Amino acid sequence: MTVQDSLQTTFDHLIFGSYFLEDGVNFILDQLGIRPQKGGQHLTMGTHNAVLKLADTTYLEVIAIDPNLPKPPRPRWFGMDNLQPGIAPTIIQWAGEAHPAQRLSASDVTLTAIEAVHPNAAELNTWLTEIGYDGPFIASTISTGETCRLRVTLESTKGPVIFESLV
User: Fold this and answer.
1) Are strands 58-65 and 13-17 parallel, antiparallel or unpaired?
2) Which residues form the Glyoxalase-like domain (predicted)?
3) For the segment 52-76, what is each residue's pLDDT rounded down to a tens digit?
């Protein structure tokens, strides 16, 4: 059995970090024409979120530091204590009952593409194959003068909407 045979890797959720949750929610509303629904607080991380269903097991999360919660004794997830631009995927193993997206209200927004523009695109694509990834992601080689970035395309009632990471 190869590593590829033993793993099934899927895309779970897309994270938009925001300094203030309501600003992030309003940004998504403006771009996609739909307001993410209230999520919850993450007491151990000192954050809170709003979420938007993209598919049965895929969702968009807007996350921000919750000023009403104490700062945790360790760094917050996703580098939220010091937000930086770039491509920063996080890999987790979902171990729970129902996937969070299954509890969300339906939306007219779907994820159609994720592209990482990176100098080591071939290695990234090989790695994705090795871990058994099957989803809407491809790495493209960076061109002269370009910077690394993540490009996500969502389809909404407003048509296709493209987001690029800050670099």
Assistant:
1) parallel
2) 11-84
3) 999 888 899 999 999 999 999 999 8
